[in-house]
Amino acid sequence: MQDLVDELHERFAPLDDGAPSDSLPELAGVDPDRFGISVVDADGERFEAGDVASGFSLQSASKPFVYGIALERCGAGRVRERVSVEPTGEPFNAIGKLDEEGRPFNALVNTGAIAVADFVHADGEDDLPARKALLEERLGRYFGRRPAVDEAVLGSAREREHRNRAIAHLLRDHDRLHDPVEDTLELYFHQCALVVSTQDLANAGLTLACGGRNPLTAVRALPVEHVPALLSLMLSCGMYDRSGEWAYEVGLPAKSGVGGGIVAVVPGRMGIGVFSPRIDFQGNSVRGMRVIEALSERLKLHTFAVRA
């Protein structure tokens, strides 16, 4: 496995398609040649190459884990009353794309993720510091450590993300947000501004691969009964408006972010984390996709592959 990871890093490092996201200055300024691959299996053995320990902005790769918080604390039925589970075929930041019941189509696009952030409340605490602390603690269970926030990214999001502010007011108008709009937005901006490494993403993928329990720390991140729903959503909706092609060709639950990270899950076997800030027009890391596609093909990892 280590030889394969080294081979893929060497093969795709020269690939210069795509560019860092220009949605925030801090993302646009990231070195486009940074590139790391981390794979960790169910025995805790790690296979890595490149820039695997230094941090980058989690962005939309946070969305499945926050959705898991909502499922655990509020129940799937209550969450689905406000957020559906259908792919959209639209850009992840599309405004006005709601279903016939006025719900966001899924929790992995911005409309749904902002609605999901509204569910994140600490026990008996409605203030933002307590809600942010809960968010960090719960995501830390997947990563094996509590993540820090990039204050510069967070500040830029507050100042510049007018499209997400418009989405939040649309959701409020459809009664899909119950907390003050600015509080929900602040929590959403906070989750996206968390700093992770490819090692963290691989640990998170492994946690989901092992039924919601992090085998590296023996800490449960998500009740096992919610794992199938989360993985199904990642498979059908996790790669923005490329999700259908991804499910067809690669067949692994995954979630990307415009910061350049991708987390992928091989149920029962391993977690994969890849980082490269060069993203395509849909918002997915170009090198990251190529690496996971190659791993799936070489190791026959497609979820629906028939193994003799």
Automatic annotation (TrEMBL):
Keyword tRNA processing: no
The protein's Enzyme Commission number: 3.5.1.2
Reactions this protein catalyses: L-glutamine + H2O = L-glutamate + NH4(+)
GO terms, biological process: glutamate biosynthetic process; L-glutamine catabolic process
Tree of life domain: Bacteria
Class of this enzyme: hydrolase
InterPro entries: Beta-lactam/transpept-like, Glutaminase
Family the UniProt entry places it in: Belongs to the glutaminase family.
Protein name (database record): Glutaminase
The species this protein was found in: Phycisphaera mikurensis (strain NBRC 102666 / KCTC 22515 / FYK2301M01)
